[in-house]
Design brief:
Chain A: It is found in: Cellular thylakoid membrane; Endomembrane system; Membrane. The complex is a heterotrimer of chains A (about 525), B (about 200) and C (about 500). Chain A contains 24 helices and two strands. Chain A is an all-alpha fold. Chain A has a domain of about 230 residues. In chain A, α5 runs parallel beside α15 and α18 packs antiparallel against α19. With about 200 residues, chain B is mainly alpha-helical. Among the domains of chain B are: about 70 residues, NADH-ubiquinone/plastoquinone oxidoreductase chain 6, subunit NuoJ (Four Helix Bundle (Hemerythrin (Met), subunit A), Up-down Bundle); about 40 residues. In chain B, β1 and β2 form a beta hairpin. In chain B, α1 packs antiparallel against α2 and α2 runs antiparallel to α3. Chain B starts with a helix and ends in a 13-residue tail after the last strand. The chains are: A mainly alpha (about 525), B mainly alpha (about 200), C mainly alpha (about 500). At the A-B interface, α2, α5, α6, α7 and α8 of A face α4, α6, β1 and β2 of B.
Chain lengths: ~525, ~200, ~500
């Protein structure tokens, strides 16, 4: 195999977007080394933003290319991966916008912060397209280790240290379990590492127990990444102790990467046990929705509340995942996209508030309406969107999810989703009430001493831009969701293994449905009574 | 069974016993230095297992990296910290110990059953290669190129992260930053810690 | 286009209020709401009353994947409610005190609600209706929580949670219907003639009934109502009782009766009984109240029962009566809340035991009291006023079908008269205690809303055609599409009795 031949087989153009991020990372790192921290801090964030924009642009250009496996099957640049990689790149983009001022105010180096964040992004983006076990594990570890480092970035703060240590220990344990699961897959398939080859090898075997154990171990690793109950124990402490922009990234980018991994690995390598993994994820979804939303009610700290709410939101996303229909996957990815904007918008707001007042207690938001209407408006809209109030984006995201779930016959999940949405409205509106309803005399001390609004210090403008971008996206992405949803739907339709996951399930439907164009329902027993 | 097979079997058994014995030592020794040394024993025994499986390069790497670097690092860390702490006995500790033992035993049983039940597919390439180094190198530069290159990013990031965490921060930057109206110490969260709930 | 204007003009206006200088805020809000009132009247003028179908259709593709399209239209059922909504919005804005705190937010939210409620009445797509139905949730929450009186926070949260649950139930019903029907769109027309088996219809109808029953509210789903109505300030209570409750009754008619006529026919006797229970319960509990605002609030529970009764009876006359009752109840409740609010503002209490002799021509509040008497009479169904027309139509239409329930409801009207007599007797008549009779003067401009409302009540009471002509064609069509089974049973019952 000579070099030229190899190079032509690699199809290296598929990873150009990741290449752009890596290049940016290098420029930022070397630029800061060469020019010193103070002078580099003025331009490196913009380089990083430009690099991420370039990466998203390259992803858009790849949209129309015929998807081919690149790097001899290591990486799959199909439309599904393009959408998910864009979500991760965008989440990093917004995270950088909000972190410049935050890191600057903490007196730390933005260049190093962004270097680690960008490598996390590279890991997440590769994870979205990874088709091979080694690639999956290396990219997952890149993402995870970068996340541990970022969590402990405020190293003089004991909370940050505690969070990092907890995250590291639990994360390492879950990685080990995940790796064990992968090694079982490798063994069961007779030494295959490519997902499709594994699926082929497993289709012939009858090693049910081994496959199930591999499945459980793999799901344990994935659930840790997406913080599904009961693998969520790290979330509240890590979210409280980590720097807020990092929390934002963990709750959106890292979670999107986890879902990307789940879609690819479970649908592709485990078609033999579709019912089992859908059953496990149904249980995870139920637990996440209930526990996340119920415990969020009791929180007094904004970061902790968003931590639990993000667990609940992951539960909603899992509805789209477990039903296993095209519409389900599409609405799940669409919800992730919407969730990106509304959740990052909320985080931008609480960062702004924390920077101005030095607190994130919900009770301290009392009467903010009087002092900072813009922040109040933005945070209210983002939270209401998370709660699913129309006409904000979150409402449409949930409607897509629930409609897809209902069409697939997952009535119980959809009704539970509706009930927990109502619960979530309660705790989101509590914050809105704190900010908007409280009268001037009930204003909290920090709001009374609220500093004059000043957008001039370094990093405030990007924060403002991030605020407006997420706010506008949250307001109109739902109303104008048709093109977005079509896009996501196209991405899902063109992925063959999502159809195979579907086809494997069809025999479960005992009776023909009255609606041939609708996918076969998941719950066949309730279906037989319904028709 | 030929002589070679018999030697292989006996060596495997001896090495497995060494792994298990050393691993028990890691867990059961009260003195953490002993634990660290027995951990080295675990690594070396595993390296022996690799040799039995014709994976000479992996075995060498195992000794070099895990014994030579990781384990030594652990020992250094123990020596540098060297803090004697008397743990107060936790009441009802036996419940935790018992439940941990039960879970572990259950997992062990499950995995054993699975290992025995499964018909493991033999690897297609049965013949031992001439040189594993060449084979690994070929893989690194063909079908495992992308993870191999990504690992370099991982290492670079880990390096930067290690420097960031280990660096003495007071040399660069000023000591306080402005949070809200009050000066706040650098490298801490801007959010004030919560008041302990009375 | 004109229908969209009714929705988007107030919503965009609400946003535009952010730019209006504070001095002109109320004027701007009044002009905005006045123009949508004129717009709705213009629609009424253009409306072809002989045409039973949806008119002024608008249909734009929106989210085809969801089956959610921007489909609007108006018929005889929704037209009166649209006018009611725009009228009460204007009155609510007009009657809000000059010294309203945070006027920008207040007027903005009221306008937003007006647009959303119009949207819900106009929507010809189930999901679009649901969207508008949910939009008013948070604005109402804020209106109650910020500008309410005592216990406002609790009341607002209760309102929010009840309404959110109601929304969830309705959503389940809609999604279930579309899925069972196998339709690829939530368009109303596509679903109206569904051919589902009866038991499926019954389940879906139960969701619709409970969902909207919370909103109306019907006993025993009404527990949020007294707290919320009492905590809300007078203009907001007007909107809550006058407009928001109508979303519930409209929803039951449009999506319960309209979509599941067969199941509705099966459940009709039960619904009539439910209505009767509501009527009697509302009236009896109102008698026991010591707080005039609470009394008016409970009177609303009773009056909503008549609407359900009219719907359950399913005769042309009773349906016309029910639609008329929606409109009449909106007017009457608005005037009562307005006057009660004014009494509270001037006298400083709402306690029946304290209030006395307000009719006193010199030192009391004579005009307010007189109008209160008029409102009470209208509410109790005294002939010559709008309440009588609608209640009479409902009773006359339903008697043939459900004689017992109708008679009990007539008893309910009698009880209504009882508590209004108690209310009026205590508040307006008797000797005014000179020690407390030092009320601020009632300005002329404060009387305007009550005068407008009472003139409308009087006019429509004397000229009822103007009230019922809009909905006659539509209700006729509604009854006509009913499956023959129901009609035969009702006819048989009628013949038996004669």
């Amino acid at each position: 195999m000579d070099v030229a031949n190899l190079a032509s087989q690699l199809n290296a153009g598929a990873i150009l977007p990741e290449g752009a991020v890596i290049l940016t990372l290098m420029v930022v790192l070397i630029g800061e080394l060469a020019l010193g921290r103070a002078s580099a801090a003025r331009w490196t964030p913009y380089v990083a933003i430009a690099g991420l924009l370039l990466s998203v642009g390259l992803l858009c250009l790849q949209w129309d290319l015929t998807p081919t496996l690149s790097f001899l099957g290591s990486f799959n640049a199909d439309k599904l991966s393009i959408v998910l990689r864009s979500i991760i790149a965008l989440s990093t983009l917004v995270t950088i916008l909000m972190s410049i001022r935050y890191v600057e105010q903490a007196g730390s180096s933005i260049g190093e912060f962004m270097t680690i964040l960008l490598s996390a992004t590279v890991g997440g983006m590769f994870l979205c397209g990874a088709e091979e076990l080694t690639m999956i594990f290396v990219s997952l570890e890149t993402l995870s280790i970068a996340s541990y480092l970022l969590t402990g970035y405020m190293k003089r703060d004991p909370r940050s240290n505690e969070a990092a240590l907890k995250y590291l220990l639990i994360g390492a344990a879950s990685s080990a379990v995940f790796l064990y699961g992968l090694s079982l897959l490798y063994g069961l398939s007779g030494g295959e590492t490519h997902l499709s080859a594994i699926a082929n090898a497993l289709a012939q075997g009858t090693n049910h127990l081994g496959l199930l154990i591999a499945l459980v171990f793999v799901i344990a690793g994935i659930s840790f990444k997406i913080a599904a109950v009961p693998f969520h124990q790290w979330t509240p402490d890590v979210y409280e102790g980590a720097p807020t922009p990092v929390v934002a990234f963990l709750s959106v980018g890292s979670k999107a990467a986890g879902f990307a991994l789940a879609i690819r690995l479970l649908t592709q390598a485990f078609p033999a046990v579709v019912e089992q993994w859908q059953f496990i994820f149904t249980a995870l979804a139920i637990l996440s929705m209930v526990l996340g939303n119920v415990v969020a009610i009791a929180q007094t700290s904004m970061k902790r509340m968003l931590a639990y709410s993000s667990i609940g939101q992951a539960g909603f996303v899992m509805i789209g995942f477990v039903i296993g229909t095209e519409a389900g996957y599409a609405s799940m990815i669409f919800y992730l996209l919407i969730y990106l904007f509304m959740n990052l918008g909320a985080f931008t707001c609480i960062i702004l508030f924390a920077l101005r007042t030095g607190t994130d207690q919900i009770s301290e938001y009392a009467g903010l309406y009087q002092k900072d209407p813009l922040l109040t408006l933005a945070l209210s809209l983002c939270l209401l969107s998370l709660g699913g109030i129309p006409p904000l984006a979150g409402f449409f995201g949930k409607i897509y999810l629930f409609w897809a779930g209902w069409q697939a016959g997952a009535y119980g999940l959809v009704i539970l989703g509706l009930v927990t949405s109502v619960i979530s409205i309660y705790y989101y509106i509590r914050v809105v009430k704190m900010m908007v309803v409280k009268e001037p005399q009930e204003m909290s001390d920090v709001v009374l001493n609220y500093p004059a609004i000043n957008w001039t210090p370094l990093g405030m403008r990007p924060l403002q831009v991030g605020l407006f971008v997420t706010l506008i996206a949250t307001s109109i992405a739902g109303i104008l969701s048709n093109p977005l949803f079509t896009l996501v739907n196209n991405a899902v339709v063109e992925v063959p293994h999502l159809q195979t996951a579907n086809a494997a399930k069809t025999p479960m439907a005992i009776l023909p449905t009255t609606t041939p164009e609708l996918p076969a329902p998941l719950v066949s027993n309730s279906d037989s009574t319904a028709l | 069974m030929t002589l070679a097979d018999g030697v292989q079997l006996v060596s495997t058994l001896i090495l497995a016993a060494m792994v298990i014995g050393a691993a028990l030592g890691v867990v059961l020794f009260d003195n953490i230095v002993y634990s660290a040394f027995t951990l080295g024993g675990v690594f070396i025994s595993i390296a022996g297992l690799y040799i039995l499986m014709n994976a000479d390069f992996v075995s060498a790497a195992q000794v070099l990296i895990y014994v030579g670097a990781v384990n030594v690092l652990i020992l250094f860390a123990i020596m540098l910290v060297n803090k004697q702490e008397v743990y107060s006995p936790v009441p009802r500790r036996w419940i935790r110990k018992l439940s941990a033992a039960l879970v572990s035993a259950g997992l062990f049983g499950l995995l054993t059953v699975m290992l025995l039940q499964t018909e493991w597919l033999p690897n297609a390439a049965q013949t031992a290669p001439d040189s594993t180094v060449i084979l690994i190198g070929e893989h690194f530069f063909s079908d495992y190129l992308l993870p191999f290159e990504l690992a370099s990013i991982l290492l670079l990031m880990a390096l930067v992260g290690a420097v960031v965490i280990a660096r003495r921060e007071s040399i660069v930057g000023e000591d306080t930053a402005i949070v809200g109206e009050q000066p706040a110490p650098v490298l801490e969260l801007p959010e004030r810690p919560r008041e302990p709930v009375a | 286009m004109i229908l969209s204007t009714l929705i988007w003009f107030p919503i965009l206006g609400a946003i535009a209020l952010a730019l209006v200088p504070s001095r002109y805020l109320k004027w701007a809000a009044l002009i905005l709401s006045g123009s949508i009132l004129l717009g709705s009247l213009w629609i009424a003028y253009q409306f072809d009353i002989t045409q039973p179908l949806i008119q002024f259709r608008e249909d734009l593709p929106w989210l085809a994947t969801l089956g959610l399209n921007y489909q609007l239209g108006v018929d005889g059922l929704s037209l009166p409610l649209i006018i009611l909504n725009t009228l009460l919005t204007w009155i609510a804005i007009y009657s809000s005190p000059e010294a309203t705190e945070r006027p920008r937010l207040f007027y903005g939210l009221v306008l937003l609600i007006s647009g959303a409620v119009s949207g819900a009445f106009l929507a010809q797509n189930l999901l679009l209706f649901f969207l508008f139905y949910e939009i008013e949730l948070v604005p109402f929450y804020l209106l109650i929580a910020i500008w309410g009186s005592e216990k406002k926070s609790y009341a607002a949260m209760k309102f929010l949670l009840y309404t959110a649950v109601s929304g969830a139930l309705i959503f389940v019903a809609f999604v279930g219907l579309v899925w069972l029907q196998g339709a690829d769109s939530f368009a109303y027309t596509a679903l109206a003639g569904n051919t589902l088996p009866l038991w499926q219809q019954l389940i879906l109808l139960a969701f619709v009934l409970i969902g909207f029953g919370i909103k109306i509210p019907l006993v025993p789903l009404h527990t949020w109502l007294p707290d919320t109505y009492v905590a809300a300030s007078a203009p907001i209570a007007m909107l809550l009782g006058g407009v928001l409750a109508k979303l519930g009754t409209y929803g039951i008619f449009r999506f319960g009766l309209g979509l599941f006529p067969e199941a509705w026919g099966t459940l009709a006797p039960g619904l009539a009984t439910w209505a009767t229970v509501s009527v009697l319960y509302g009236a009896t509990v109102a008698i026991a109240q010591k707080d005039i605002k609470r009394m008016v609030a409970y009177s609303s529970v009773g009056h909503m029962g008549y609407i359900l009764l009219g719907g359950a009876a399913l005769t042309e006359l009773s349906l016309v009566g029910a639609v008329a009752q929606m409109f009449a109840h909106g007017l009457i409740l608005a005037i009562l809340f307005h006057l009660v609010g004014m009494v509270e503002a001037k006298v400083g209490t709402r306690e029946l035991d304290v209030l006395n002799g307000l009719m006193n021509p010199l030192r009391g509040l004579p005009l307010v009291s007189a109008l209160l008497v008029l409102g009470g009479m209208a509410s109790a169904g005294i002939p010559g006023l709008v309440g009588f027309v609608s209640e009479f139509l409902v009773f006359q239409g339903s008697y043939a079908v459900f004689p017992l329930q109708t008679l009990l409801c007539v008893v309910g009207t009698g009880l209504t008269a009882v508590y209004f007599v108690i209310l009026l007797n205590r508040t307006c008549f008797g000797k005014l205690d000179n020690a407390i009779a030092d009320f601020p003067k009632v300005e002329w401009r404060e009387r305007v809303p009550a005068l407008i409302l009472s003139l409308t009540i009087l006019f429509l009471g004397l000229q009822p055609t103007w009230l019922v002509r809009w909905s006659e064609a539509s209700t006729h069509a509604m009854v006509a599409v009913l499956p023959p089974v129901t009609q035969v049973t009702t006819l048989a019952q009628v013949l038996d009795r004669e």
